[in-house]
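Long-time lurker, first post. I've been practising inverse folding by hand and with some scripts of my own, and I keep getting stuck on stretches where the structure tokens seem ambiguous. Below is the full token string for one chain I'm working on. Before anyone asks, I'm not after the true native sequence, just a reasonable design that respects the backbone. If someone could post their per-position residues I'd love to compare against what I wrote down in my notebook.
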């Protein structure tokens, strides 16, 4: 168990060595290609991806890696930076008297998000009303009413009677009457509108008419995280029609990476104001750009990992240590230092979650809790040894083992287990240090193992 945990840490340390030295153009290209693939798979706009790649390559070659950071991490960090820039600063929606209008294509989550926003403002103590401005889908009226009741805000809608036409004029009329009725007694009025399959002329006209009538302070585009390559085009069309003031990305609780939504935000410049993370009215959150982008790249919370890794390796050079290990000289002191380094990175499970793609998943299958516990125990045992013992483990005969077990509140077999683990690790290192072919193999494996 512990061996596995340390093995992975060693792998990443060795990976750093593999990547150490000068930044070369081939490596940058290789990493950039990986990233391009990830972004395209996440449905980000092709043109944007290509433009981004150019900037990334340029910066990666011109800038020096931060201390303690491998070249790969250096490049990934730049990618992170650039994507954060593209996404822009998320914006807070003011808690004030205002009219908010929701727009978006069919089924993106407008009505649900109207309920969520109403809930958000209500919780902050504002008086909220919602208007059912969707006259095209018969069920839309009831859907919003149910949500309004659930949240406890005022609802305004006009249920279509049989035979009535559901034209755009009606939508404008409803919104006008709704606003007139709600305005006096409410601070925030949120108007839900109809969606369509795509942005047709009819919908654009209706939207423009409603906007003229309502003159909203905020115009939010609601966009499903699953939206694909067309996202930028569609968002631009909405932006041109009404002048968006913000974007809400929904369904980020699903498997979609949200690359299309990023493209939309980048194309319109309408900052993300909220994200939807579930069907329930409570599931509305502010955007955490770093997390969003980590997910986009399929790299988990990579940035946090980089920060932690940097912190952990400051004061102790991971690279130097790995070299020493590979030279075959590996004492219990080294093992203790190694455990400290891993310990500083936080709970193993958390660290694993932050690791890129396959690596993190592979680790997550393991029993992190148990590994963590063992590591804790080993640390206590190690600290019950003298420095001399740790530097010269062959001194640890039975009587000393007994003393150490007592001193650390463990059993002799625990101490022996640790020594056995130490032996295994050291032999592995030794084997590695004398076997060039195996070293090369491992390096290669590490390279491909992203
Ligand atoms: N998992 C998840 N589901 C969501 C989220 N937001 C909305 N949904 C679901 O998506 C579906 C469509 O949501 P609606 O709010 O009806 O979408 P709409 O844009 O109003 O749809 P139309 O009015 O038909 O254009 C519903 O089943 C919602 O429950 C979210 O953040 N997460
Ligand atoms: Mg709707």
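-- Answer (accepted) --
I ran through it position by position. Result:
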């Amino acid at each position: 168990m512990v061996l596995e945990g340390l093995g992975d840490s060693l792998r990443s340390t060795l990976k750093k060595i593999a990547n150490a030295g000068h930044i070369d153009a081939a490596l940058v290209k290789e990493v950039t290609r990986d990233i391009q693939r990830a972004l395209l798979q996440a449905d980000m706009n092709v043109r944007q991806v290509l433009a981004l790649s150019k900037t990334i390559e340029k910066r990666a070659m011109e800038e020096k890696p931060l201390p303690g950071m491998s070249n790969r991490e250096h490049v990934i960090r730049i990618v992170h930076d650039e994507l954060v820039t593209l996404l822009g600063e998320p914006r807070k929606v003011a808690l004030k008297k205002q009219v908010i209008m929701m727009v978006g294509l069919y089924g993106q989550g407008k009505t649900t998000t109207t309920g969520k926003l109403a809930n958000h403002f209500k919780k902050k103590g504002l008086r909220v009303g919602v208007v059912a401005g969707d006259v095209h889908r018969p069920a839309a009226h009831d859907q919003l009413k149910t949500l309004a009741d659930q949240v406890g805000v005022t609802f305004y809608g006009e249920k279509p009677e049989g035979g009535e036409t559901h034209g755009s004029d009606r939508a404008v009329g409803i919104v006008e009457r709704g606003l007139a009725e709600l305005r006096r007694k409410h601070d925030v009025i949120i108007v839900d509108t109809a969606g369509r399959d795509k942005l047709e002329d009819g919908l654009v006209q209706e939207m423009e008419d409603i906007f003229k009538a309502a003159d909203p302070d905020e115009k939010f585009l609601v966009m499903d995280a699953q939206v694909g390559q067309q996202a930028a085009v569609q968002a631009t069309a909405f932006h041109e029609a009404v002048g968006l003031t913000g974007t809400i990305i929904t369904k980020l609780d699903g498997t979609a990476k949200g690359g299309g939504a990023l493209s939309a935000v980048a194309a319109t410049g309408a900052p993300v104001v909220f994200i939807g993370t579930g069907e329930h009215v409570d599931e509305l959150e502010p955007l955490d750009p770093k997390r969003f982008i980590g997910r986009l790249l399929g790299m988990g919370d990579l940035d946090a990992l980089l920060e932690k890794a940097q912190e952990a390796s400051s004061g102790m050079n991971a690279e130097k240590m790995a070299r020493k290990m590979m030279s075959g000289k590996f004492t219990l002191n080294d093992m203790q230092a190694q455990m400290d380094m891993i310990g500083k990175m936080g709970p193993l499970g958390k660290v694993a979650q932050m690791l890129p793609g396959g690596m993190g998943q592979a680790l997550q299958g393991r029993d992190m809790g148990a590994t963590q516990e063992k590591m804790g125990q080993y640390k206590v045992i190690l600290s019950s040894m003298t420095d001399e013992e740790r530097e010269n483990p062959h001194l640890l005969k039975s009587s000393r083992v007994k003393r150490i077990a007592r001193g650390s509140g463990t059993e002799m077999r625990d101490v022996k287990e640790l020594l056995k683990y130490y032996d295994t690790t050291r032999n592995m290192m030794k084997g590695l240090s004398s076997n060039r072919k195996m070293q090369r193999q491992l390096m290669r494996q590490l390279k491909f193992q992203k």
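A couple of notes from the structure itself: Residues 412-434 form the longest helix (23 residues). The domain at 2-20+314-448 is CATH 1.10.260.30 (434 Repressor (Amino-terminal Domain)). Happy to go over any region you disagree with.
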